[in-house]
Amino acid sequence: MTLSVQQRGNTFLVVVMCLLTLAICAPFSSHDWQRVVQISVAVCAVVYGLCLPQAERYVDRPTALGVSLIGVMGLVSAVLAHQPLWALTEFAMVISCGATAVAFSRVRRNGDESLDRVLILFVLLLCMIKSIQYLHAGLLAFTRGEAVLNTDLLLSGFSNKRFFGQFQTFTLPLLALPLLLSNVSRTARAMVFALLCVWWLIAISGGTRGTWLGMGIAGTALVFLGASGRRWLAWQLAALACGLLLYWLVFTVLTGYLGIQISNGAADRLTTTLSARGPIWWQAWNMIVERPWLGFGPMHFADIANDIAAHPHQAILQWASEWGVPSTLCVIALATRAGWTTLGVVRERALSVVPVDLLRLCLFASLIGALTQAMVDGVIVMPVSQLWLALVVGWLMALHVWRTSPAAPVPMLYKMWTAAGVMAVGLLVFVAIRDVPHLTERIQHYMGSGKDHLQPRFWVQGVIALEKQ
């Protein structure tokens, strides 16, 4: 029996949601596992695209030309890199993220508003599961009778608490959507608000300053986007206040009463230091000065070993040092143009209380927060963050209101994009099959060489410079 276009999209969405749940909520989840899940999602996205008729154009001609130019420069940079296979792997990962975003966009375009409800229910489910895991870990910590409580140990499913913070930056804005809808009952609204308060409690105790910064910038932007934007901010501030109160009651009052000391508390993160980012930012800048046109090659910040990280924790510096300044300017121009266009739609519909317009507002806040955090953290590097960035961008593409009907896609460009997606996921699958059986050995070899911490990039041990030895 042949499935309809909408049924194929629903099947793809269900499979992806199951994979994402395993990546985020499974007790055994880790950076490497999440990368394998990301590759699996990319394969599903490409297969889904192959099962559909030629799509209508989702971007206009200048955007298509800009993406093509970035692709050509990236390919040349990868081929000329010191380790071309690793550079092409990163290049393939970027293409796969684009294919995943397009797949999400096509699913929503071929469906209806019921998929928006599915998306939000999925976000609520993920956040609820992670909140239960956090509260359960906290309960166990308080009942063990230990003298010191390390708040970092309450977070699970991610190799680093900052990666958890990136996930929260994407989801905190979306959790507020049910609170903005008029057709949600008081009971449901109260339950969602309670979840949002706990989610803020976790964001506070996690101490990821990039999340705080991203949400602050997103809230500042939404103040100027009509009554719905200000309502969104009001709900977030109310939940933040409740989260702060909960944090004080649990990690100050209760721990003081029980005589428990707190390790890695939120107050320890209230600093203005760069947390060792200065040296890696300087390394990226030196790479830009040395090779400004095509950069050192995708992923090749990790080819110059340092004692801090395999990426510079700053999206612009990373892209410029690895892909070159011209490619970076193209990316900035495309991102600015897309953001400004989306902002225009949001402002035009600022007075609307239609669910799809409110969802667009929340997605836009999520994107602002994530891009802000990308200026101080590895949002464009980590697998879960890349997946959520593709999801948010793809859904926004699907909800975009065109002022004029976009022109029909050029068949040749469509075939080239499809071929690029197939080759990209093929390379990623090859790399996964090659590396996954030896990841533990790779980590042991790295740590045995005198290193005291892992530096995630493609894999959790992401330093490729060691392979030159």
What do these coordinates show?
This protein is mainly α. The protein folds into two domains: 1-111 and 280-323 and 379-469, no CATH class; 114-272, no CATH class. Helices cover 69% and strands 1% of the residues. The chain contains 17 helices and two strands. Strands 1-2 form a two-stranded parallel sheet. The model has no long low-confidence stretch (mean pLDDT 92).
Key structural traits:
single chain; 469 residues; mainly alpha; 2 domains; two-stranded parallel ribbon; 17 helices; 1% strand
> Order of strands in the sheet with the most strands?
1-2
- The fraction of residues in strands falls at under 5%
- Residue ranges: pLDDT <50 for 5 or more in a row? none
Helix proportion of residues, in percent?
55-70%
**How many structural domains can be distinguished in the coordinates?**
2
User: N-to-C terminal Cα separation, in Å?
Assistant: 55 Å
Order of helices and strands: HHHHHEHHHHHEHHHHHHH
Mean pLDDT: 92
Instruction: Describe the global form.
Output: globular
